[in-house]
Amino acid sequence: MSFAAFTLVTTLAVGSASSPASASAATGPLSAGAPAPLASTKMKSALDGKLVSIADVAGKAGTLVIFTCNHCPFARGWERRIADLGNAYAKKGVGVILINANDPAKYPEDGFAEMQARVKSLGLQVPYVVDETSNVARAFGASVTPEAFLFDKSGKLAYHGTIDDNHKDPAQVGKRYLKDALEAVVVGKPPAVAETKGIGCGIKFR
User: N or C: which end of the chain has fewer CB within 10 A?
Assistant: First the structure.
């Protein structure tokens, strides 16, 4: 079965780094067309130590919110592509914010100092913030890392799901879901694919 055949409204959560398991956030993921919840919640950024909210970074062309972390093999597999997309589309009018909702007590690699190190190593130019209560992730219905939520210029959810169809090898990617969605939003069009199944490690809620 092809990856494209997996396109669903629900999200797959991987409970551990090595063994996939199905799970869902209490509220379920945001519906297409929904606005970003808790958009005014301030979160500390590993980019510069400042407090920033989703509303603060909202762009004229759209806004991209990605829940991610440091330790998850899926997040690590996609992190370079996430950084490159974030940096590139921030210059095209898309506001970008990466959010770590994981409890560092469970995975120390997801602590703030490690986030700062990741910002430097990846050359991130967009905020990578801490969701200190995990409540922003809960409000979005996010359940895995990484998980993308792309809002159009009117603030409505235009795309939700995964980055592309191969977290292990960029050279083997066949479907660039998030990039294609970004390209559409930048020119004011709806993405051809608005929903894909999120693949990743389950968020370690606080």
Answer: N
- Torsion region of 184: left, alpha or beta (phi above 0 gives left; psi -120 to 50 gives alpha): alpha
Q: Tell me the average pLDDT of the chain.
A: 90
CATH number, domain at 182? 3.40.30.10
Q: With contact defined as beta carbons under 8 Å apart, do 75 and 69 qualify?
A: yes
Domain containing 116 equals 3-202
**From residue 36, how far is each of 25, 27, 132 by CA, in Å?**
16, 14, 18
DSSP 3-45: GGGG--SS---BSSSSS------TT-PPPTTPPPTTTT--EEB
Query: Which among 113, 128, 131 is positioned nearest to 203, based on CA atoms?
Result: 131
Q: What is the total count of domains within the chain?
A: 1
